[in-house]
Design goal:
This protein is an alpha/beta fold. It has two domains: 2-179, Rossmann fold; 185-484, Dihydrodipicolinate Reductase, domain 2. It contains 16 helices and 19 strands. It has helices at 9-24, 44-61, 70-77, 90-101, 124-133, 157-168, 186-196, 227-231, 234-252, 261-274, 283-286, 362-366, 411-415, 423-432, 441-460, 477-484; strands spanning 2-4, 34-38, 80-84, 113-117, 145-149, 176-179, 210-218, 287-290, 292-293, 295-297, 300-302, 320-326, 336-342, 349-356, 376-382, 386-394, 402-410, 438-439, 469-470. The strands form four sheets. It has an eight-stranded mixed sheet with strand order 8-12-13-7-14-15-16-17, sandwiched between helices. Strands 3-2-1-4-5-6-18 form a seven-stranded mixed sheet, sandwiched between helices. A two-stranded parallel sheet has the order 9-19. Strand 16 (386-394) and strand 17 form a beta hairpin. Helix 1 packs across helix 2 (44-61), helix 1 (9-24) packs across helix 3 (70-77) and helix 9 packs across helix 10 (261-274). The longest helix is centred in the last third of the chain and has 20 residues, at 441-460. The mean pLDDT is 92. The structure holds 6-O-phosphono-beta-D-glucopyranose. Residues 151, 219, 238 line the site of 6-O-phosphono-beta-D-glucopyranose. 6-O-phosphono-beta-D-glucopyranose binds at residues 151, 219, 238.
Length: 494
């Protein structure tokens, strides 16, 4: 494994802890070796030392044990080499190639390699070109070469297409593993299992029985140390065509012919392709943006977005987005999917809420029961991972009264909690060549196609009322209006 960006945040916070977890589970082969490629002057010891600090913090916060297992860490560090190189310099790739050919290099060049691009996205295209030119991406004699690319994959439809063109000129699609880290989350993977491995749900999973779907990805964190990145990104680009659309696709897709990577990805792609692309004139009724002002979260005051580090004091960037999506296919025609995601919201919650249609009220009217509670199925992705079902039950007693009740399954009760970064499965899958949980080019492009009119409209129409929601709140009032117009309302984020 060659990690480009070996000194970066992603490597420290997620990739190395994931490798440590894989080593603990003995899922890395004996011949495994890591080369950390970065520009900074470093040696093996200093690089490993800088990784260890974060790993310690991760292990402590995961509550599993208080200390890093030294035997496992030693096993990993024995296989870790630092390599000082410049991403933009062809000679660095030649030198890397020579390093991989060293006689004592574990496995030699005849082994299998994957190159993990944990680097700023503006270098993706050129890094792949350099890998190609140096021959490092060349598969031969049954050994493989794979490239792992993190998001953001483009900043809009045009740049995503251009990036794909550039890397597909060097690599075959089967060599590219585009990460969307939401797909590494167990609960996201479970959406498909829940739907297709249980006979109960599929018959009601359609426009006959479902009224609408709400997908919420709310965060309490602000932009952390990423003000500069966020100022050119915003909530729509950051979360919607990737993470949120993955949740939409898994909720709405048809059963695949098999669990083969392309069978699953083709079904997911079809859902995103079926989402109606709105006209510019429709944007203001189908999409809402927001930006947080000052407020309070967990009893503590938090500043406005415009006063965060590296953020303009007149910033027009959205930290919240809500959209109404229409999936124009046989199963979902007429069933809106409302999505929302925001920073500095009332609480952290990623949830898919499925609201079933109401019953014909005749019977209950006779029993003088008004407004029976609707049935909701809630797929809780994080935190408190689980699945709940809300329905009405008769309140015991001589009179006919209906109470709202809830059946609740929590992952932790059945399976315990696994200290995972979400990257373990993804890295493991790259090694075994299973691309099911990775984004295919067509998937990414159709995601951008849907959000493009909104990006364009927002770029040419400044928001008039930013900031329009208080930190720690439910989001902007305009988002409530979006559902109110359809006679619906958001579930409370709490
Ligand atoms: C990232 C976004 O892709 O996902 C962040 O860039 C966001 O802005 C994060 O906070 C959310 O991921 P998670 O795993 O913390 O829910």
């Amino acid at each position: 494994m060659v990690i480009f960006g070996a000194g970066g945040d992603l490597t420290k916070r997620l990739v190395v802890p994931a490798l440590y977890n894989l080593a603990c589970a003995k899922l890395l082969p004996e011949e495994f070796a890591i080369i950390g490629f970065d520009l900074a002057e470093n040696n093996d010891e200093s690089w490993q030392g800088s990784l260890f600090e974060m790993l310690e913090a991760f292990v402590k916060s995961s509550g599993r044990e208080s200390m890093v297992n030294q035997t496992v860490w030693h096993w990993l560090t024995e296989r870790m080499t630092y390599f000082q190189g410049d991403l933009n310099n062809p000679q660095s790739y030649e030198a890397l190639k020579a390093k991989l050919c060293e006689p004592d290099a574990k496995n030699g060049t005849r082994g299998n390699y994957f190159f993990y691009l944990a680097i700023d996205d503006r270098f993706f295209g050129s890094a792949v070109q350099h890998l190609g030119q140096s021959g490092l991406a060349q598969e031969a004699n049954g050994s493989w070469r794979r490239v792992v690319i993190e998001k953001p994959f483009g900043h809009d439809l045009e740049s995503a297409k251009a990036l794909d063109k550039k890397i597909l000129a060097i690599l075959d699609e089967s060599q590219i593993y585009r990460i969307d880290h939401f797909l590494g989350k167990e609960t996201v993977q479970n959406i498909v299992m829940f739907r297709f491995a249980n006979g109960l749900f599929e018959p009601v999973w359609n426009r006959d029985r479902i009224d609408h779907v709400q997908i919420t990805v709310s965060e309490t964190v602000g932009v952390e140390r990423r003000g500069r990145f966020y100022e050119k990104t915003g909530a729509l680009r950051d979360m919607v065509p990737n993470h949120v659309f993955q949740l939409v696709a898994m909720t709405a897709m048809e059963a695949p012919n098999s669990f083969d990577a392309d069978a699953v990805r083709s079904e997911k792609a079809k859902v995103i392709q079926a989402i109606k692309v709105c006209e510019s004139s429709e944007v203001s009724c189908t999409a809402v943006r927001g930006q947080y002002g000052p407020g309070e979260i967990g009893g503590k005051p938090v500043p406005a977005y415009r006063t965060e580090a590296d953020v303009s004091s007149t910033s027009q960037i959205e930290t919240y987005v809500a959209m109404k999506l229409q999936i124009e296919n046989w199963r979902w025609a007429g069933v809106p999917f409302y999505i929302r995601t925001g920073k500095r919201m009332a609480s952290r919650k990623t949830q898919i809420s499925i609201r079933f249609k109401e019953i014909p009220a005749v019977l209950l009217r006779e029993a003088r029961i008004d407004n029976p509670a609707p049935n909701w199925l809630l797929l809780r992705i994080q935190p408190e991972e689980g699945i709940a079902f809300e329905f009405g039950a008769k309140v015991p007693g001589p009179t006919m009264k209906l109470g709202d009740v809830r059946m609740d399954f929590k992952y932790a009760d059945y399976f315990g909690t696994a200290p995972s970064t979400g990257y373990e499965t993804l890295i493991y899958d790259v090694m075994i060549g299973d691309a099911t949980l990775f984004q295919r080019a067509d998937n990414i492009e159709s995601g951008w196609r849907v959000v493009q009119p909104v990006l364009d409209y927002w770029a040419s129409h400044s928001p008039k009322n930013f900031p329009n929601y208080a930190a720690g709140s439910q989001g902007p009032a305009e988002a409530d209006e979006l559902l109110k117009r359809d006679g619906r309302e958001w579930r409370k984020i709490n």
